[in-house]
Design a protein that fits this description.
8 helices; mainly alpha; globular; 3-stranded antiparallel beta sheet
């Protein structure tokens, strides 16, 4: 994955800041990417600066091995490597607004697991609303089976060896400028900008090539 090595850098978004308007506003996207994600990148590089043995690890490897690191490093690595991975995955999972729905193998898997797209949407919305405080809701696979999970703060399903397909960031900074504290409206708007083609790629990567967690988009150079 591009940018998946120390020192980590903030990759450009695969779309303009205003591409998700009117559902996610340009100012939120700019601040979310340039301030919040950049802070996690800066913090992660700072943590790794004096630990050359850790500098050889990818984001996923850092997250998976955080619990086995010295105690003084565990929280900082989990929070900041997770913050970089989670934000990149969330940003890459959106596109210009459309009325799209899942297609292909992912659509079939959603139908088998949740009965229908509407059944999935309701279950996912309920999970995202239920996150207490800050965190994420995820559609993941475990041994090829879809499930919806939530994680607090910047914890990542990667740490649990789950393969992510889709994610929504429900930290208030992801929606407060437009929706204030109305998370439900934000979730409904987010469903309008899901990149289902990217989610299909992620699902195929999870089920066909277990050595890769997901297929990131090509970012502009």
């Amino acid at each position: 994955m591009a940018g998946d090595a120390y020192p980590f850098v903030n990759l450009p978004l695969p779309y303009s800041y205003d591409a998700l308007e009117p559902f996610i506003d340009a100012k939120t996207m700019e601040l979310h990417h340039n301030r919040h994600l950049q802070t996690y990148i800066n913090n992660l590089n700072g943590v790794l600066k004096d630990h050359p043995q850790l500098q050889k690890l990818s984001l996923e490897q850092l997250i998976r091995s955080a619990s086995r690191m010295p105690k003084e490093l565990q929280t900082a690595v989990r929070n900041n490597a997770g913050g970089v991975f989670n934000h990149r995955f969330f940003f890459d999972g959106m596109r210009k607004a459309s009325e799209g729905q899942p297609a292909g193998r992912l659509s079939q898997a959603i139908g088998r697991r949740f009965g229908s797209y509407d059944g999935f949407r309701e279950a996912f919305r309920k999970a995202a609303l239920a996150v207490f405080g800050s965190g994420y809701a995820w559609l993941v696979t475990e041994r090829g089976r879809l499930q919806i999970i939530t994680t607090p703060n910047q914890n990542s399903p990667v740490e649990r060896c789950l393969c992510p397909v889709l994610a929504i960031d429900v930290w208030e900074h992801a929606y407060y400028l437009k929706h204030y504290n109305d998370r439900a409206d934000y979730i409904d708007d987010w469903f309008r900008v899901i990149d289902w083609e990217q989610a299909e790629k992620n699902y195929r990567a999870c089920t066909e090539d277990r050595t890769r967690l997901f297929l990131p988009r090509s970012h502009p150079s």
